Structures are given as structure tokens and as C-alpha cells.
Amino acid sequence: MQQSPYSPQSQSVSASATTSAVQLPSLQQTYTAIPRVRPQTPLLDSIDTPADLNAFSSAQLIALADELRLFLLYSAGQSGGHFGANLGVVELTIVLHYLLDAPHDQIVWDVGHQAYAHKVLTGRRDQLGSIRAKDGLTAFPERAESVYDTFGVGHSSTSISAGLGMSLALRYQGRPQTVACIIGDGAMTGGMAFEAMNDAVQQDADLLVILNDNDMSISCSIGGFSRHLAMLWESGYQVDISDSGQPIVCQRPDMQGFDRRKRHKEMRDVPQLEDNLFKAIGFTYFGPFDGHNIPELLRVLLLAKQVKGPVLVHVYTTKGKGFAPAELDPVGYHAISKLPDEQPHDTPPAAKKSQPALKYSQVFGQFLCDKAHEDDKLLAITPAMEEGSGMTDFARQFPERFFDVAIAEQHAVTLAAGMATQGVKPIVAIYSTFLQRGYDQLIHDVALQDLDVTFAIDRAGLVGEDGATHAGVFDFAFLRCVPNMLIAAPKDENECYHLLNTCYEYQGCTAVRYPRGVGTGAAIERPAQTYDIGKAMIESVVGRDDAPLKLALLAFGSMVAAAYSAAQDIAQQLHCQVHVVNMRWVKPLDTVLLEEILADGITHIATLEEHMLMGGAGSAVNEYLLNESAAFKHHRPAICNIGIPDRFIAHGAPAEQMADCGLDVAGVVSQLKQLLK
Ligand SMILES: Cc1ncc(C[n+]2csc(CCOP(=O)(O)OP(=O)(O)O)c2C)c(N)n1
Ligand SMILES: CC(=O)[C@@H](O)[C@H](O)COP(=O)(O)O
Ligand SMILES: [Mg+2]
Q: Which residue, 233, 244, 248, is CA-closest to 288?
């Protein structure tokens, strides 16, 4: 039987704000500028906990959405941060907090980059301007920050597993609480989401999954799953929910404002009503619904949360909703920087830099394009990070050699392994923190078979405002214990370019590990060179040759510049001689150079890395000296390892994080003084 969701029957639900609310006009505004002055938000200001929403009428909830959106715009201008996704879930967040009894009921966000409205409604409104800053709110939900943050997150595709775990534990303990997971169409491309859905059906768990489908990941949504979602749109049907929670198939009502062209993916077949992946694997499916229509969401979610077993409610939203520039450019507005301070009129404009420094990701992008022109075997893979990894030019110039595999790090690695078996040379561009997802694949599928795969590992080290979830500080440790792996760490942008080339040219598995943002500003010197593998460089020798204390400062990657500055200070203050060594390679280590340094009468050795101390490059040096070095048996300099201490480093500006770890120049100097005293 077909029925319109606007029929009287489908409106008869019980909560006060939901009755006959469907007829209410939407007040949704679209803004074109980010306010610099805190907007008036009387309704929002009255909410200190989600329970305060209980008194709201449907009309007030709609008005609240406008206030909240405007407040988010203002706050993002003050703090920067993830932008488009947050604007897109304003209505959904309000409705969830209206209908559910958090923190008793569990709201689980996927990725968590869209949880700003959730933070605002759960007592953190006045702190939102501090988000991502040192000592401010975290960029993502975090259990330590609020009881309303049920599960810490930052990496994607975890919500259904975590939510299922909660649901099963609650069932086991006889505690009837609702668990609602909110997952985007991008996050759902991650394999874990499917593993969890498979299990949820097996367990017949009570679990409400809300699929927030905005047809966007960071880039445009891609892949078979995305086509499937587009097909659900193209079919023109909707699976509505009856008052008793039964699916009712009907013609989808007109949904104003959604960009149909974006969703119109290449369909192989005419969309069939019965083609529904979620239903096929055993979920009860409802949707698609307009995720910006508060009355509709209230009606549907109130009923859906009472349905037993695993339920998926599919809503359409617009990324960047309500801010015209973000709606037009959702990729560019995925995240924004905070607004620059307003200049008084008589301030002269800042002088333009002649040559802006390249970010490491841009260096990688340039390398990819240059190399692809000369070598047609080069193929490049990204798990959903095309823009961030600097691959947009390459994707445009070489579309047939560019593979965005969606949020699928494990697959990205094994895909490369498979490619390498067929005589091409794949490069996997991946953020260090996300490579953690592909570790078994790196060992089992790439290294064990010694396949010719290059890993371009971006965002290595501390990444700043995204905080501990995104810190790429474990890679030396987890890579260097894998046989066959070569690991390079460039000291600057130019060296990055040449090390990428060196590793690419090497027949086997290699990794070049470089940080977020810009380095020292070193210009790229073309043509690409091939460096000697495992060869370090003495950068400089600071201080007098006859100094009684001789320190070898073995610096890795991003720490070479700090090592050089610290060496100047320490040589001056302590009258010692410092050899600053750019180690360049974590594996193989330049053991020849280490032996030479020892033979040279070095009295102290310090290693320096932007990586966890435990198991990192310093550990590699220690292991060599203790287990293999011939010279170290006779001559034992005092050793100190400098790196990130054994704790997770909180968010803040990169410089603040470095200082927190003692990795700024002052911190390094002070640790070297301890060693030398
Ligand atoms: C494992 C992992 N890989 C990549 C990312 C980077 N990332 C953050 S948000 C995002 C897109 C998520 O898309 P979607 O879930 O649809 O959310 P939307 O931004 O569209 O609301 C990506 C790729 C991540 N956080 N975790
Ligand atoms: C939420 C998420 O994982 C990404 O959006 C991430 O914040 C991007 O980081 P970059 O800004 O370093 O590309
Ligand atoms: Mg999305």
C-alpha cells in the first residue's frame, strides 16, 4: 500500500512538539557572511542541558535551529574548525536531543567532526569558541570532556561497532536504553561500518543507525555504495514509517533544496524499489527523509527508536546547510581557519611574500605530477584524502592513474599490493594516523611479499588542533619492526621531494614520512635526485674542536631544524662541540656514520624525533649501539633520547604541542643541558 508521509495517519505521534508539526513552515535562513559579533540567541541561551529542550514547541525547535546555525557560524569564525558537516546536522542534533534522554540514552557520533551542535546543546555553548585551542574544547567528542560524549572519536566508521557494543552490554545488564549512531555517507564506506552492521543483524541488537547522507565525504562521495544511495534517490520511493513502526512504501515527497545533479551518478540499471542494501542484510530501513525538516525528523525518529532490532533511518542533508558559500563549495568549507583579526583602517596592508612556502602535501603533489610525466608505471592511491594529500592536480592531469578508494585504508594498502604484482608502481598517499588502520595489510600484503609499494606518509608528528586522535606519532615504531621496510624522514621540503624519488625508484616497500603544513621553506631543486639509501648527513659542526664535551645530535626529519638551533645555543652556553646530524633514514640507519662518530671521541649522544620516545628512531639508535656496534663496546658516550613522552598529547597550536613535549628549541636545549651536565 502506498501512502504519503504527509497523510494524517503518519502524523499521529505522541510527543508534544511532534503533533501536527508537519504543517509548520520552516524558518531556515541562508546566510552569506560569518558574523563577527555574537548574535542574539535567546532560545539557545536558555538551554544548559538537553532536558531544557523538553519545554520547546515544534515552532520553537525550528527557530532554535536558526539560532544554533547562526551561533555555529559566529563561533567557527572565532575558532576555525570543521564547518560544513556541522551546519548540516543542526536539525538532526536538535531532534535527537529532544527525543532521546541523554546521557542515559547513548548518542554516538561517527568521526565526530560534526558534533559542535551537540557540544552546544550539552552545556558547552559558552566554551565553543575555545574549540581546538589549547585547554579549550576538543575537536571531536571525548569521554573525558563530557558525559554526553559517549565515545571518543576522530577516525571514521567506528560508531556502529561502538554503538553495537553499548547495545549488547546494555541488553546483557537488562538496561533498556536507546543507542543511536549517526554516521555519514562517507564514513559508511569504511569497512568497519559494514562489519558492524553484519554483526548487529546477527545479534538482533536494538540499535538505531541514522545515515546522514549529504553525498559528500571530504571530496565528493564516490564508489558503489555512493551509487547505491543515489539509486535510492533516483527510485523516487520512500520507505515511510507507520504509527506502529512498520515500513510503508510510498512515493517520495518532493524534497526542496537538494542538488539532484550531484546525486545523479551513472546507473547501470533502472533503480528498483526492492534494491536496498540495508534491508537486504537484515536492517529495518526507513527513508530517505529530509534531514533539515524538524517536524518530519521528530515524527520519524520518535517512531523508529521504538522499533526492535537494528534499524537504519536514512536522511538527506546538505553539507554547509544555511551558509551559501559552503553549500556551493562543500569541499573548500569542510574545515575553515578562524577569521583574521580585523585591521584598523590606517594599518598598512602586510607586504606580500615573494614566494609562499610550499606545504609538504604540495611538495608531494608536485613530485607525483613530475614523476608521472616521466614514468607511466606510476599509479597513486588515496583513501578519501585527495585534497589534504595534495593530489588534486595529479587527479586532474592523470585521472586514469588516480584512485580514490573512499575511507578504506586497509583496502588502499592491499589494493596497492595487488597493483604491484602486475608490474606497475603504486604510491599510497596516506596520513600517518590513518595508516594505523592498514597495519596488517602493510605487513601481510606488502612487506611480507616485498612488493614494490611506496607509502607517502603525510601528517606525521603532532598535527595541532585536531589533537591526539590525529597525531601521527607511532609510525616509526610500527614501521621499523617490519622486515623489508625502508623508512625515510626528510628534514625539509626539498629533501622530501628527493626522498620521495629515491623511495619510488627503489624496488621494494618504502615509506617517506613528512609533517603537516610547511617546513623550513626550502625550495625544490629539480631534477629529482636519488639519494644513497641509509646515508645520513652531518649538517654542521658547531663549537670548538678542542672542547672537552663533544655531543652528537642525531636528528630525524622535522627535528633537524630545531637541532641546528639548539646546537648553536648549547655550544655557546656550555662551551662544547656539537655535531648536528641529519639522519634522513630511520631504516636502514647510517651505522657507518654512527661508528665514525664513536671513533671520533664523541662524549655524548642525543637523538631527536617528533615521535613517541618508546620504540621510535631513538630506540633504533639505542638498539644498534647496544646490540651491534663494535665501537660502542669500547667507548660508551652518555645517551639521551628526546621525543614525545609516554602520554597522548592534547590539542593546541602545533608550537604549543611541541613546547608541551619539550620539543621546541628551549625544551631541547634544556634536555641537552641535563645530558651534558
Ligand atoms: C579512518 C579515517 N580516514 C579518514 C578520515 C578523514 N575524514 C574525516 S571526515 C571525512 C569525510 C567523512 O564523510 P561523511 O562521513 O560523509 O561526513 P560529512 O563530512 O559528509 O558530514 C574523512 C575522509 C578520518 N577521520 N578517519
Ligand atoms: C576530521 C578529519 O579527520 C579530517 O577532516 C581532518 O581533520 C583533516 O585534517 P587536515 O586538516 O590535516 O587535512
Ligand atoms: Mg557525507
A: 233
Q: Is 113 annotated as a binding residue?
A: yes
The answer to whether residue 522 is domain-embedded is no
Residue 502 forms part of a structural domain: yes
Q: Based on the fold, state whether residues 365 and 505 are members of the same structural domain.
A: yes
**Same-domain status, 331 and 364:** no
644: CATH: 3.40.50.920
- Ligand 2 atom 13 nearest Cα: 388
Q: Give me the domain span that covers residue 544.
A: 537-676
Q: What grid cell was written down for 214?
A: 549529504
CB of 520 closer than 8 Å to CB of 560: no
**C-alpha cell belonging to residue 675:** 645530558
Helix (H) or strand (E) segment spanning residue 498: helix 493-505
CA distance readout (Å), 631 to 70, 217, 595, 628, 636: 67, 54, 6, 9, 8
Q: Which of 109, 111, 382 to mutate to test the pocket of ligand 1 (most atoms within 8 A of CB)?
A: 111
The proportion of the chain whose per-residue pLDDT surpasses 90, expressed as a percent, equals: 88
Report the Cα–Cα distance between both ends of the chain, in Å, rounded. 85
Spacing, Cα 249 to ligand 1 middle (Å): 31
Burial of 346 (0-12, 13-18, 19+ CB in 10 A): exposed
The verdict on 501 and 581 lying in the same domain is: no
What is the ipTM for the molecules in this complex?
0.99
| Residues 77 and 30 occupy one common structural domain | yes
- Residue 531's contacts (CB-CB under 8 Å, 6 or more residues apart) are 498, 499, 502, 584
Question: What is the tens place of the pLDDT at every residue in 374-422?
Answer: 999 999 999 999 999 999 999 999 999 999 999 999 999 999 999 999 9
3-state secondary structure at position 286: strand
CA of 217 to the centre of ligand 1 (A): 6
Boundary of a domain, candidates 335, 370, 394: 335
Residue 350 included in any domain: no
Task: Tell me how far the alpha carbon of residue 189 lies from the centroid of ligand 3, in angstroms.
Answer: 10
Cis check: omega of the bond before 588, within 30 degrees of 0: yes
| 456 & 560 share domain | no
User: Does 521 reside within a domain?
Assistant: no
* Cα–Cα distance measured from residue 359 to residue 265, given in angstroms and rounded to the nearest whole number: 33
78 lines ligand 1 (CB under 6 A): no
- Contact, 241 vs 207, CB < 8 A? no
The CATH number of whichever domain residue 415 belongs to comes to 3.40.50.970
- CA 161 to chain centroid: 18
Closest C-alpha to 508, from 591, 448, 557, 556? 448
| Residue 335 zone, left/alpha/beta (φ > 0; ψ -120 to 50; rest) | beta
Instruction: Report the domain count for the chain.
Output: 3
Last residue of a domain, one of 513, 546, 562: 513
Q: Are residues 556 and 477 in the same domain?
A: no
**What pTM did the predictor assign?**
0.95
Give tens-digit pLDDT for 189-217: 999 999 999 999 999 999 999 999 999 99
- Which residue in the block uniquely carries the three cell numbers 532490532? 309
d(CA 627, CA 631): 11
Q: Is 129 annotated as a binding residue?
A: no
- 427 with 493, same domain? yes
Asked if 159 and 48 sit in the same domain, the reply is yes
